[in-house]
Amino acid sequence: MREIIKSFTVSIWFMFLTFPIMVIKVNTIEKTIEWRWERLIFVGIGSFFLSFLWRYLITRKESGIKKAEAGEEIKQPLSQRFFEDRRLFFPALGGVIILTVTFPLFFSSYQTNIMTNALMYVMLGLGLNIVVGLAGLLDLGYVAFYAVGAYCYALLNYHFGIGFWAVLPIAAAMGALFGILLGFPVLRLRGDYLAIVTLGFGEMIRLILENWNKFSFGPSGIANIPRPTFFGYQFSFDHSFIYIYYLMISLTILTIFVVNRLQNSRIGRAWIALREDEIACQAMGIDIRKTKLTAFALGATWAGMVGVVFAAKTTFVNPASFTFMESAIILSLIVLGGMGSIIGVILGAFIFILLPEYLRAIEEYRMLVFGAAMVVMMVFRPQGLISNIRRTYEFRSSKKQ
Amino acid sequence: MILELKNIQAFYGNLQVLKGVTIKINEGEIIALIGANGAGKTTTLMSVCGVVPPRFGEIYFMDKPIHNMSPDKIVALGISQVPEGRRIFPLLSVMENLDMGAFLRKDKAGIKQDLEYVFELFPVLAERRHQSGGTLSGGEQQMLAISRAIMARPKLLLLDEPSLGLAPLIVKQIFEIIRKFNTESGTTIFLVEQNANLALKTADRGYVMETGSITIQDTTKNLLKNEEVKKAYLGL
Ligand SMILES: Nc1ncnc2c1ncn2[C@@H]1O[C@H](COP(=O)(O)OP(=O)(O)OP(=O)(O)O)[C@@H](O)[C@H]1O
Ligand SMILES: [Mg+2]
C-alpha cells in the first residue's frame, strides 16, 4: 500500500514536471496556446506504472539478498542451471551450431553481413574481456589494436602485396606487440588513471593514422584492399560475404576455445588474483608486471586479427572507423553481457549489435535506450546478464565432507 | 640462520623510514617485532619480501642475498607473508583463496595435505569453504589470510599485525594457533605486532623498533621484565 502511495506521488511529480513540455503547446504563428490535457493523463499513468514496477523489482531484489544473508539456500540462477544441466545444454548447443552453419543458406547476404559484424564484436569483446573482465584493468583504448590490425593488412598489402592469410598471424603479433607497448608505461597505474592513459593511447593511434599522411594516407584512408582468398581461389562479390562469415565463425570458435583455456590456466588465475587485490597478488608470488603485460598482449591479439577481417570485409580502411565510440561499444557489450563470462560476452555482443540493426525504428533513440538499459542493468544485475561462472576448485578432504 | 637483515635503510621517495635495521632470525624461531605506530615495522617486512627494496644494506635468506630480488622470486624461495590488513581476495571463495596461496606449487598431493592441515587448524574455514572471502567476519578473514600463506608451505612466514581490529578473545585464539603451527611444522615466524603483550608471550625473541631503528633486542622473557618495555609498550 505504501508503495502505491509512493508511486502515486512520483506520478504527480512527473505530471507537474513535464507539464510545460507535454501539455502546453504554443502556436507561434497564430499566437495561440494549445492545451493538450489528455497527454497529462498518459504521463500520469505511464510514470505511475513505471515507478511501481521499479519499486516492485527493487523490493524483490532486496528480499533475495536478505534471503542469501540469512543463509537460506537460494535458487541457482537460471543461466547457471542451464549450463550445468547437460540434457539441456547439449541440444541447445547443437541447435546453435546448426543455426550458425546454415545461416547463409536461408538468409540474404545482407543478413549474413550483419551476422559477420556481430561475430566480429564477439571476438573483440572476448579480447577486451581478458583485460577488463579477468585482469580488471580498465582499458578504454582497445580500438587502437583493432586499428593496428586493419592498417597492418592494408599497408602490408599495399606495399608488398601480402595476402590475407599471411597477414592474419602478423597482425595478431602486431596486436600483442602494441599491447605490450601500451602495457609498459601503465604498469604502475590503476583505476581512473589507467583508464585515462589507455583512452589517450587509443586516440593517439587514431591521430597518428589521421595525420601521418606519408605513412597511412591520412583521413582519406586506403581503398581496394583485396578480400580473402580460399587457397588462392577468389570468390565472387556475393559469395565472399558468405566466405567471410564462415571465416569469422572459425575465428570466433578459436577465440572461445583459447580464451576458455586461458581462463582456467595458471595465467588466468593470476589475472583473477590481480583483479581482486594487487598487493595480495604479489604476496602470492605472482609476478604482476608479467601478468599485466600478458593480459594486455593476449587481449590485443584478437583485436589485431579482427582488424584484418574488418579491412578485408570492407576493402577500405580510414581512421574514422576507429574512434573512441568503438571502444565504448565493446566495453558496454562486456558490461551488459557479464564481465568475465564468455557466454555473457557473446550474448552481450549479439544483443548490442543485432538489436539496433533489426529495430531500425528506434535507431534515433538507440543511445537513449542503451543508456536506460545500462542504468537498469547496473541496478538490478550489476554482474551482467550472465554472471561469471567460475570454476570452483574442489579439493576433497578425506576426513570432512 | 634463516634470515639476516644487515643494516638496511629503506626510503619512500626522499623520506627515510628505516635507518639501519639489523635483525637475525634462527631457523624454527618465532621473532616478534614491536613498536609504535609509524615506527617502520610494516616497511621492514616489505623490505624482506621485496615490495620496498632497501636502498642500502643487505638481506640474506638462508645465506642467499635477496635484497635485489623481485617479490615473486622471493616468495618462490620460501617466504610468504600475511600482509597488513589481511588482503584476502574478496570475491573468491575461501577455497579459491587458499588455492591462490598455493599458486607457485605444483605438488597436488602436498597441496591437498596442507589444505587438510589448515582446515584442522581453523575448522571454521572448512565450514565456510564456499563462502566468498569478503563476506567472512574479520576474525575469519584473518584466519583465511594466515591459512592462505601457509598454503605456500613457506620456510619463513611473515605476519603483519594479525591482531588488527579483532576482539581480544579471537586474538588470543589466533596467537595460540600461530604457536601451535610453529611447534608442529617447525616453520620460522617473523611476527610484527602492536599488541606487545601477546606478541612477547608468543614469541621466543623480540626486537623493539623506534622511528626506524632497533633500540632493544632480547629474549621475550627478559623483554617482558624490561622496565622500558613495560612502561612504553605494556602499559604497566
Ligand atoms: N607508501 C608509503 N609512502 C610514503 N610513506 C609511507 C608509505 N608507507 C609508509 N610510509 C611512512 O613510513 C613510516 C613507517 O610506516 P610503517 O607502515 O612501516 O609503520 P608501522 O610501524 O607498520 O606502523 P603501524 O603499526 O601503524 O602499522 C610512516 O611514517 C609512514 O607514514
Ligand atoms: Mg604496520
Order of helices and strands of chain B: EEEHEEHEHHHHEHEHEEHH
Classification by helices and strands of chain B: alpha/beta
CATH topology category name of the domain at 1-78 and 156-162 and 186-236 in chain B: Rossmann fold
The N- and C-terminal alpha carbons of chain B lie at a distance of 34 Å
Largest sheet of chain A: 2 strands, antiparallel
Instruction: Tell me what the CATH architecture of the domain at 1-78 and 156-162 and 186-236 in chain B is.
Output: 3-Layer(aba) Sandwich
Major sheet strand order of chain A: 1-2
Task: State the CATH topology of the largest domain in chain A.
Answer: ABC transporter involved in vitamin B12 uptake, BtuC
> What share of the residues of chain B does DSSP label as strand, in percent?
25-35%
Strand content of chain A: under 5%
User: Spans of chain B of 5+ residues with little confidence (pLDDT < 50)?
Assistant: none
CATH homologous superfamily (4th level) name of the domain at 1-78 and 156-162 and 186-236 in chain B: P-loop containing nucleotide triphosphate hydrolases
The total count of strands of chain A amounts to 2
Helical residue percent of chain B?
25-40%
Output the structural class of chain A. mainly alpha
Largest sheet of chain B: 6 strands, mixed
Number of helices of chain B: 10
Give the CA-CA distance, first to last residue of chain A. 47 Å
